[in-house]
Every structure is written in C-alpha cells, then in structure tokens.
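the two lines:
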Amino acid sequence: MNLVQTVQQLISILTDVIPNYEDDFWSADTELFGAIAEFDSMAIVTIIGEIEEQFDVTFDDDDISAEHFSTVASLADLVFKYSR
Amino acid sequence: MINIKAEFFQGTQGKLFRLIRRPKHVQAHVLYLSPLFEQANQTRHMFTRSALNIYTQGLESIIFDHYGTGDSEGELTQASLTLWQQDIIAQLNEIKERSALPIILSISLSAALLLTHEILALTDGMILVQAEFNGKRFVQQFKRLALAAQLNKPAVKDPLFHNDELAIAGYVMKSQLLSQLSEQKIEKLSTIKQACCWFEWQATKSDLSPARAKLYQRFKEVLASENSPCHFYAIEDVKYWQSTEFEIAKQYLLDELHGLTTLLPAINGGTIGSITGSSSGVNKC
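prediction for all of em together
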C-alpha cells in the first residue's frame, strides 16, 4: 500500500468515527487535533485501534503526540512508516 | 405495550440495577452483559433497541449495570473482575431457579472479558457482538485514553497512578482491576460448548482485518466440537460504539433476529417456537 492509498484508508476510518462531515471535508491536508471538535481523546484512541486492526500494525504509546495527529497527512506518514 | 420492570437485584456485594422486559409467552431468556467503562455508554442505546427487537419474538431481556457502575450500588473503586463475574453467575442461577427455558448471553465488545467456564456452563447460547477477548489489548487501549487526554497539556510524569488507584477518562478504579482484565484471553475458555452467533462488522467484499481474523480463528479453534455450531454474520453497518454521533445499526438488529432463529433450535433440538428473521449474510463455522 502506498502513501496515497494509506491516506484514503485513513479517511475511510475518520469518516466512520466522525461521520458528521461531508466527504469533501476530508483530504490529506485536513487538520485534526485541535481543529475538529469531535477529535477528542476517545476519538483518537478509537482511530488508533482501527488503524492497528486494519493495517496490522502496533503503535508505540510514544506515537500518541499532537505532531502525529495534527493532520491526515501526518497521521498517514506515521502509519506508512509502520506498514512498510 | 411493552411489559418492562425496573428492579434492584441483590448481587454479591450490593444491589444491581436491572431492566427486565418480559413478553407474555417467554421462549428464552437473554442476559445482556454490558461492556466496560465508556463502551457501556456507547452501547446502551443499542441494548435497548435489541431488547425491544427480541421482545417481539418472545424473548425476555435482562439488562443490568455491573456493581459500581451506572445505577447499581457501589463505587468503581470497590469493583473487581471476580465480583462482576460472581454477579453474573448469581443472575444466571436466579433465572435457572425460576425457569427451565434456555438462557442466552448477549456479549458485546469488552463484555467478553468477563466470561468464565462457570458462566458459560450456566448458559445455553451466546450472541457475540464484535467480541473482544484480548484483555491486554483492551487495557492498552483504555490506558491510551489518558495519554491522548494529555496531548494538549504539559507533560506530567505518570498521570495515571495515585497510590493503588487509576484515573482514566473520569473512571477511577483499583489498578488491580485493569491487571485482572489484562490477563483475560480466549485461551482461558478452552471448552466452549454453547451454540453461538458471532456478529462481526466488516465492509462487503472485504476480508476481516488481520487482528480480527486471528481472533475469530482462535475462537473457532476453542469451539469444542461440531455439536457447538457457530454462525458468523458479517455486518455492514455503522460501528455505533465508535461513532461520535448517536447511531443505530439496523442491519445488526435484523441479523440478530435471524441469528436467534438458528440459535434456539440448535439449543432445543427444534422444539422451540418459531422466530421470524431474515439475514443478508451468514456462514456456519
């Protein structure tokens, strides 16, 4: 899976967890942490769980940082790093 | 009109709040095991929908709050895994004392971590809803809530612990409770003999995720024999327990009824009355 595909799959996860945005809201540049009200700790952990299940990766707890969860692209970079 | 009764059941250490919906002609009893912590809040509305769903088919539902949670007595800090399990056993025994009809457990998400041999021995069937049998993973995810909550705050050394208690996402508990939960795994249930329905959320035409596929495979391995059939349902619907919005999984409610049409005859050898339901996708494992 390449980075573009990773972004698409991440957006699919995000729209499931945070369904009250139109499809065109989501892109690689969409800001997450601090920018979306629903992107709280519960949503973050839910998304981590879904990523780990769907990508068959295991995050380190140190990966839970504002930097990694700042945008869809930054999160995709993190997932891509683990899934390569 | 629905015949519903709210009551307090005397549990092992305190009274447990229960809602019982009892139809006129009961065919079986369904005891709903609430999942743990925030998952209990995220699933309660679907428990209610499910209970109403099965009521129409002559199934009595019992929904209760674990000790130290919801409207039951006690504090979460006084709860333990063993206590919660004893409370489940007490309720199963109470049902058996008043009825010879089948008892089915409805087990959603982390509620699977509560299962023991003794609990299963008192039941005739299981409805497993995206069951989580991996205690270590569940506890890791739960602890991550505390880490995620610290993202926009100054770093605090080990924010979780205060003496022997933990505070995560507003839930204060003994650290021992999470230790007990983290030790739970499917291998502890080495002889599952109950007929069951396994409901798994997955997109159409897509495979199970590797982690879920591994868990389901392990579950199949611990099924005792061909005499304990398990019907697998792929649910293509909203993961209501994850959504930040209030969601109803309508396909699950339909398939749940279908699952019961297969479960009860398997338990009773075909002697139970008929239940009507249709399904979009089921496989026998």
